[in-house]
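Co-fold these.
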Amino acid sequence: MSAMLALYVREVRLAVRVGGGALMGVLFFLIVVSVIPFAVGPDLNLLSRLGPAVLWIGALLATLLGLDRLFEADRDDGALDLIAGSGQPLELVALVKALAHWTATGLPLVLAAPLFSLFLAMTPETIGSTMLTLLVGTPALTFLGSIGAGLTVSLRRGGLLVPILILPFCIPVLIFGVSASTAVQFDPAAFHTPFYLLCAVSLVAAVTGPIAAAAALRGGLD
Amino acid sequence: MPPRPEPDPVTGPAPRFRPLPPVRLVVDDLVVERGGRRVLDGVGLTLGPGEALLLTGPNGVGKSTLIRALFGLVRPEAGRIRLEGPDVEEPDEVAPRCHYLGHRDALKTALTVAENLAFWRRFLGDPGLEVDAALDRVGLLDLSDLPAAYLSAGQRRRLAIARLIAVRRPIWLLDEPTAALDAASEATLLALMAAHLAAGGSLLAATHLALPLSGARRLALTPADVDAGFDPDQPEIPPAAPARVPRP
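Predicted complex below.
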């Protein structure tokens, strides 16, 4: 366990240091969200109706932005060889790395969402529900993305391949996340069903993601 | 697992390490293919406690491949790599008992020298020397708060070597360990290797330099026939001499 804690601390530290992806994700999120009102125009009703969807798409893209480096950086400097030979289960390594990645890039998105939602004229209850769905849903994006990162680890310049591979699998997360966020505006009761489905998707991704990523890593090491 | 005692304080200039559990590495008829080409064909070797084996041969003959195969990073087509020893429970789990020092130093440039070493010491388990003591051994103690990005190639290599003594492993697999090292660092590395052997460890080093390690055997890989050939001047390898596998 101490080994996994050491790995977690190292990953978070790397993400917040120079060259890490933590700040980049939030900045990208900010840019995406702040560009939308210019495209949509000054119709406040339209903006507030689009708000949750815009935040979710921004979070989706920002999460996938740095995910291709999840294993590739360790492969490039030889650390992945040592990790694979350490006797620690690769599934656990993939889980811890994904959790650390979410802590450094996903969690700041959730915390920044209320601030950015002001650009989109969202109502307080929609802001709350969007933040909640982002909190539950962004880990699913990271876990799904870790599969893509594992698959492309042996490819040089496989960076853009990860979003292409993973985005289709993120569609359920997007559907349930946005529909739970927007449902609050019309009928609070309609929030529960998509929200619980979103929770389920997250939990399934948390189990299958690390297993699939570890299998992909084993294949890619050779 | 029994509780492990604290590492000895380093006494005097010559390093001395706590005794390591006796582990013997046995390789039978190893066949490895890379990209459809047979790189290693029927390599056999044994490496017992206190033994050193220097792997020599021209570029591209498969030295690195053999080391990567021993560490489990390359899947062999045939043959078996296993451990023998009184406390070996999983004979096929070779890599967790080995140190692998490859061409890449496994350093994160954004972390400091001490953070890099401390991570591997905690992650790999079975800690040996304290971080500061290990850095002192390789002459990097003054730089311990410096981000690894500012290290020279030789200093990066020394930091990677510090990993060997900060974590205890009975078998060291070293791929060109002296690359980028100056003469003084090379002498330090030799002293560490000798201390490791004295503590009952073993090491296998691929090198083009004649490392002056007393009692080291030599395994010469030859490109013409990929069978492992032995230098006749060197002591003969005990039982598991290289069995020859006919080429297809």
